[in-house]
UniProtKB/TrEMBL annotation:
InterPro entries: Gram-neg_bact_OMP, Gram_neg_porin_domain, Porin_dom_sf. SUPFAM superfamilies: Porins. The lineage of its organism: Bacteria, Pseudomonadati, Pseudomonadota, Betaproteobacteria, Burkholderiales. One of its GO terms (molecular function) is porin activity. This is Porin domain-containing protein. GO terms for biological process: monoatomic ion transport. It comes from Pandoraea thiooxydans. Homotrimer.
Length: 356
């Protein structure tokens, strides 16, 4: 009897394991993107630099994602994703093991709920509407520092209902006695109408003193033949100093005022086009402009920033691409602290990207 019971248990275990394996999956994925970049006015003495650096458009990454079918269209999901620099092997996002994503959740016919570190609602929206899909060099991605990219301790919901896409996130501040200190909340919506897609977003990020960094925006994308046209706007009101701290060149010694009394205000506009010239060759052009008030918390300290970027991408295969980029940045007024030397900077790069 003992041996028979043991055999039955083993048989049931094998059956259950086979069923679970048939209904679940785990995938290793990633991108290794490395470029050689030449930059003018790269330091306070306006010397040029040549560097081996991470990708121009896509940050190198690797991750593990999985799902398990639970029945009735419901799935358990997870994603653990790390950013890294191929030229050194170091992790990005402050050395976090999974700094890009680290969440678990449930996905079904009514939408997806995720818990853990993940993208903000603004970052998620503009990834679909920026012609560069949000670049990786500061020179071509600075406009999106207002989105805060990713947050910890987040509970999110997103869903698609035919042509309508919705998303909402609350980031727990983890502060006893307060639901707003150190917390985040945001919401986005977008709609696909034939060749036209458009969306909007609003979000707030609070610091430990409950001061807020707010941003809002609108964006659109129009497809015509092999071309896609992009348009976008972002507004910002920052009483925390987060945006200035992110954009000031790290080599600068910067004087600051009161961010609460003189919050930074941004009005950022962008436009661009992507063109699929051949099945293998895609061409992209983008332009960004920011009108800034109260830079670094100083009343009346206004400035402007202008950026143009060109990108050519040639596919050697479905997984491997060669690319070349050119970007130009110009700052004036109080925005001079965003570059290390002169008020302009030009960058040229060539690179290779492999997707696995």
């Amino acid at each position: 009897m003992k041996h028979k019971s043991h055999a039955v248990v083993l048989a049931l275990g094998a059956t259950f394991a086979g069923t679970a394996l048939a209904q679940s999956s785990v995938t290793l994925y990633g991108i290794v993107d490395q470029s050689v970049r030449y930059t003018t006015n790269a330091d306070a003495a306006n010397n040029s630099s040549v560097q081996l650096t991470n990708g121009a458009i896509t940050n190198s990454r690797f991750g593990f994602k999985g799902e398990e079918a639970l029945g009735n269209g419901l799935k358990a999901i997870f994603d653990l994703e790390s950013g890294f620099d191929p030229q050194t092997g170091y992790l990005n996002q402050g050395g976090r093991m999974f700094g890009r994503d680290a969440y678990v959740g449930l996905s079904g016919p009514l939408g997806t709920i995720k818990l853990g570190r993940q993208g903000t609602e603004a970052f998620n929206l503009y990834g679909d509407y920026d012609p560069l899909t949000v670049g990786n060099y500061t020179a071509n991605s600075w406009a999106f520092y207002m989105t805060d990219a990713r947050i910890d301790n987040a509970l999110s919901y997103d869903a698609t209902f035919e042509h309508l896409h919705l998303g909402a996130t609350y980031g727990f501040g983890q502060q006893p006695g307060s639901l707003s200190k150190n917390a985040y909340w945001g919401a986005r919506a977008s709609y696909d109408l034939g060749p036209l897609s458009f969306g909007a977003v609003y979000q707030e990020l609070h610091d430990l003193a409950n001061n807020a960094q707010r941003m809002w925006g609108l964006a659109a994308r129009y497809t015509t033949g092999p071309a896609k046209l992009f348009f976008g706007y972002m507004g910002g009101h920052d009483a925390t100093g987060i945006v200035d701290a992110s954009l000031n060149d790290p080599s600068r010694t910067v004087s600051t005022g009161s961010f609460v009394a003189n919050p930074r205000k941004d009005s950022t506009f962008f436009t661009g086009i992507t063109y699929q010239a051949t099945p293998a060759l895609s061409l992209t052009g983008a332009a960004y402009y920011d009108d800034i008030k109260n830079v670094n918390g100083i009343s009346g300290n206004s400035g402007k920033r202008y950026t143009g970027a060109l990108w050519a991408d040639y596919a050697l295969s479905r997984r491997t691409q060669l690319y070349a980029t050119l970007d130009y940045n110009k700052v004036d007024g109080g925005a001079y602290t965003e570059l290390p030397g002169k008020s302009n900077q030009t960058g040229v790069a060539v690179g290779i990207r492999h997707i696995f």
